[in-house]
């Protein structure tokens, strides 16, 4: 059984990201104040990933406590402070930052 699981895991291809956007480009677009919710490419990209993760129940923002500013600030801080992550796809960086900022409680 374990060998079958290992064989299946090895046969499963790594996720493919089909975006031409590079993390460094997103980091440049997201420069500025952490909590700036004004419409921009940065804000739209972050909120798009935020919505997708929320609908998939991968993040759990508390409705009364979460704000657009919170989501944007969480991602901008990671982009600014972790340039070594820029080799990852931007959607993965945003996903990881939002997972950390809006974790789901385990039951």
Automatic annotation (TrEMBL):
Q: What is this protein called?
A: Rap1a immunity protein domain-containing protein
Q: Which residues form the Rap1a immunity protein domain?
A: 24-104
Report which superkingdom the organism of origin falls in: Bacteria
Q: Which organism is it from?
A: Sphingomonas psychrolutea
What InterPro entries does this protein's entry cite?
A: Rap1a (IPR041238)
**One matching Pfam family, short form?**
Rap1a
């Amino acid at each position: 059984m374990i060998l079958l699981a290992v064989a299946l895991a090895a046969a499963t291809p790594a996720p493919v990201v089909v975006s031409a956007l590079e993390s460094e480009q997103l980091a440049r677009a997201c420069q500025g104040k952490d909590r700036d919710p004004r419409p921009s490419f940065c804000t739209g990209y972050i909120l798009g990933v935020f919505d997708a993760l929320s609908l998939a129940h991968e993040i759990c923002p508390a409705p009364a406590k979460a704000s657009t500013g919170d989501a944007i600030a969480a991602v901008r801080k990671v982009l600014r402070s972790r340039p070594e992550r820029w080799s990852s796809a931007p959607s993965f960086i945003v996903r990881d930052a939002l997972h950390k900022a809006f974790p789901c409680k385990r039951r």
